[in-house]
Hints:
Elements: E1 4-6, E2 13-15, E3 20-25, H1 29-32, H2 37-40, H3 46-50, H4 52-64, E4 68-74, H5 85-93, E5 101-102, E6 105-106, E7 129-132, H6 143-150, E8 154-160, H7 162-175, E9 179-188, H8 192-207, E10 211-213, H9 215-223
Parallel strand pairs: 3-4, 3-8, 4-7, 8-9, 9-10
Antiparallel strand pairs: 1-2, 5-6
The structure holds tricarbonodiimidic diamide (TIU).
Amino acid sequence: MAEYIVKAKPYEYEFDLDKTALIIxxxxxxxxxxxxxxxxxxxxxxxxxxxxxxxxxxxxxAREKDMFVIxxxxxxxxxxSDCPPSKLRRGKIQGAGIGDMGPMGRILVxxxxxxxxxxxxxxxEGEPIIDKPGKGSFYQTDxxxxxxxxxxxxxxxxxxxxxxxxxxxxREANDRGFECLMLEDCTAAFDPRDxxxxxxxxxxxxxxxxxxxxxxxxxxxLKG
Length: 224
Ligand code: TIU
């Protein structure tokens, strides 16, 4: 019998604290602040800002329970040598320009102000930050190793954007055998249609990629 049981779709999600990690994907100023990559792609960033508050509550609860917390950031070396030419090219077409100067420094470049995580969700000591060049958090990172070494089998997945980096990460995790629970109100897409479709895609077919729920159900379970 698992330590915690959470009301979720398509059915209850069960987990043990010491085998579970909270992963917070790309809550960077580049996706959640004015002038960043998200906005340069032509999006309204209201939805990505709106999840900061519920996510703070989940982060606080996870820290209280000593749950393993991992943060990720999407971005590249200053010389962009780790950015595929295809990604650079398509970024430019949409006017976003990875590596171009914006109001928060060079877009999606490591070390720049815009690339860093928003103040409200700042990592604390002991919480690894995974710098990733792609959308998925496993691709060309040591995330797998960190999880394996801690004996993590379950991931509670949050962050932005649901249909891009969150979904890519859940799909990668699913193929590696992790049990993923995505928090619907702690993930955001710029377009509500993408949010809705992403949620359905995760939990359909008996949980083809995992489970989804609202953060209140996780918080209720943790309070126990
Ligand atoms: N474009 C978009 O919606 N998102 C990204 O490029 N990255 C993440 O989702 N983090």
